[in-house]
Amino acid sequence: MRKNFVRKSTFVLFILVVMIPSIVLGLGTEKQVNQASENSNKPNTDFQGEAPVFKNVSVHDPSIIKDGDTYYVFGSHIEAAKSKDLKSWTSFANGYTTPGNAIYGDLSKNLAGSFTWAGENDSDSKGGYAVWAPDVFWNEDYVNDDGTKGAYMIYYSASSTYIRSAIGYAVSKNIEGPYKAVDTIVYSGFTKNEEYDANSNVNKKWTNTNINKLIDNGTLTGPRSGWFNSNGSYANSNFPNAIDANLFYDEDGKLWMTYGSWSGGIFMLEINKTTGQAIYPGEDGTTDDGRLVDRYFGTKIAGGYGKSGEGPYIVYDKNTGYYYLYVTYGWLGADGGYNMRLFRSTSPDGPYVDAEGKSAVLPGNVDHSPYGMKLMGNFLFERKVGDPGKGIGYGYLSPGHNSVYYDSETGQQFLVFHTRFPETGEMHELRIHQMFMNKDGWPVVAPYRYSGETIDKVNRQDLIGEYKFINQGKDTSANIHKSVFIRLNKDNTVTGDVDGTWKKTSHNQAEITVDGETFDGVFVRQWDPTSERYVMSFTAVSKEGVSVWGSKVLNKTDDEIVEDVLNDLSLGDTENVISNLTLPTEGTRHTEISWETSDSKVVTETGVINRPEVNSESVTASLTATITKGDITKTKSFEITVLPYKEAGLVAQYSFEDGLNELTGNFETGTVTGNRIDNQGGTITYANGKTGKAAVFNGESGIRLPNGLISSNTYSVSLWLKPEQLTMYTTTFFGARDSNNWLSLVPNGPANGNTMVWSGSSTWYDATAGMKINNDEWSHLAFSVDNGTINVYVNGVQKFTGTNFPNIFTSTNSNFSLGVNYWDTPFKGLLDELRIYEGALTPSQVSNLAEVNK
């Protein structure tokens, strides 16, 4: 009897020992929908489960908060959205609508206290508003006007230039608003004496901020002389741009606000919990480690010297005892290299340092790319020919300005940010990625967006195999870090495009050593949107602050890989070729692809075509691809038919001979507008032009052209320009089916300031000239679109050719204008000889147009 009892007790104990790790690992988390099998500890299985469902929104500079069972994000330009699961989002704001603004009610009246300084119909916000980067949180200690306690608080930014800004706050008992403004607490960009910005009536003298009131009530003794340069301007290399507020509680329950962007760095102020007002230091000084403490702006915690750094966000983690400071380096545009960095501190007001001990506060005007743990920048898990899925792969451009949601119950952390995408222009969307702590207490970011995954025990056998591998580097640049191929081998070596070693420690901890640098992180299964499969991945960071990612691919033989490349290889429509072909030379996993042509006069082995002139016959040739990997070789041929140019017919001409008459008789006379395509007013005058007279644009007016000038996907536009000034985004020729589907000929565009044709639609498009035309001299600009093929010319020289340009003008009622659009600064300068053609002009025809009166 006793012997039997011992046997049973031993068996029960064994069961408990087996079960306890699973219980501990799963504590506080929902059941994982994508684990390898019902028993996640069973190797060599690939249970896929259901695919996640996403619904995307665009919220720039998102700040996250959870209320009940709903997550909310609030962002710039008064955008906001909500979700139950962090995957499917629904917008509930209405932008700058006023009155009747979803967040602020009567926007203009409600935020008037801040707008007297910046943000409404002033300078960079001329003709509109600039309300940016809010942070929303629940404050149980706030005392409302009716004496009750507790309110949702929104700290917003109002801005008119890169340094003249203000932070104000508003309150509501409903998280979705409307929020009632209370006060404006921090101003920046003020000057020593009276001074005004362009397109502004705001006197920037410091006495027009709240500093006067703070002096009167004894909080400040007076203005600080160091706030001003020797010429009286704002010393923005040492002091902040007052935007990007983030509120957080420290471990003792004190409320803090960190804020700031570029220029002089990021600062910290304590906040009175019952009133929401700032607790200003009142005196200047330095911290024990030598950082600036300003009587008004507070304590400097990061950046400085005009270096990029914005969107600060601080999270306290009780498990590690650290305050984590997230900031974003770079510029937010698709070509701006936005990337997220991380520092930490044991004190809310710093010092914040990275893993190498480098301070978040810069030592001077230095290259700041070595400072901070780089979590994520430009990357692409590149899809090569033969890889599963469609398109170019999965990647981001300029991800940043993040917030973080930390679930104290489950221990889960989520990185919340906006990002742009490769080959989609400036279109941006919200993204959520889960984060995990590595063994040194540094968060590492999952490679793929959150799809409901949980961290769990992984099997060593399931880790062995080939991966797409990305090293994020430490740079802040427009460069895209593309994936390479590596293999985690059974003997714990790493081979392929990089060499090293790997190992799994504990249940899921990853240690990857490549090229002598060691990265610590985790293994986790995630949803890969390109292959549409759950795959094994890893994320890790080194002590040098470099992040690496891996995404496992299916094991395949060389024969299978070559067959995949063969089946996937395509050149699109080869029966109606009108532009150069892109001939891939590498398939998946370094498969080689070489090309041969039957007639290089028709198409070369690099894909360059020779298109016949107008009224010629089509020409044909064959291209043959040879696909090789290891000892396996296969071929695939394509028959190519190159079409001749079509005759382009002139359908509209505006020569501006002291008027806006259309000379062909096909369309009505143009009309003068104000500073937007749909505004009234404005003035257009005339002066000597390239041929006869030209229209003079004063920077506040435009010309509305008749609807329907273009109503096909084959057209050309030609004009002469003599800019007086070149401002970013300013259009010269603009056409739009609606406000979401448009094209714009911009002399100074968002792609490195290049002259370009810029299009916004379901896919954004940058057709850049690779240069910028000059002020105060005539330049001839032209572009043609031929069923998706676009060519851009400057002074008769072809500067860009590309395919897949969007079909914008699908109706006969599209809007057209010169010098103005719906959003941006109007054109200032001269414009002459606008010509619209039905059909694509040939290069020689464009060259002839550019020769007029040269």
From TrEMBL:
Residues 713-844 form the LamG-like jellyroll fold domain. Pathway: Glycan metabolism; L-arabinan degradation. The keyword Hydrolase applies. Keywords: Disulfide bond, Glycosidase, Hydrolase, Signal. Belongs to the glycosyl hydrolase 43 family. This is Family 43 glycosylhydrolase. Gene3D superfamilies: 2.40.128.10, 2.60.120.200, Glycosyl hydrolase domain, family 43. InterPro entries: aBig_2 (IPR046780), Abn2_C (IPR032291), ConA-like_dom_sf (IPR013320), GH43_arabinanases (IPR050727), Glyco_hydro_43 (IPR006710), Glyco_hydro_beta-prop_sf (IPR023296), LamG-like (IPR006558). It comes from the Bacteria.
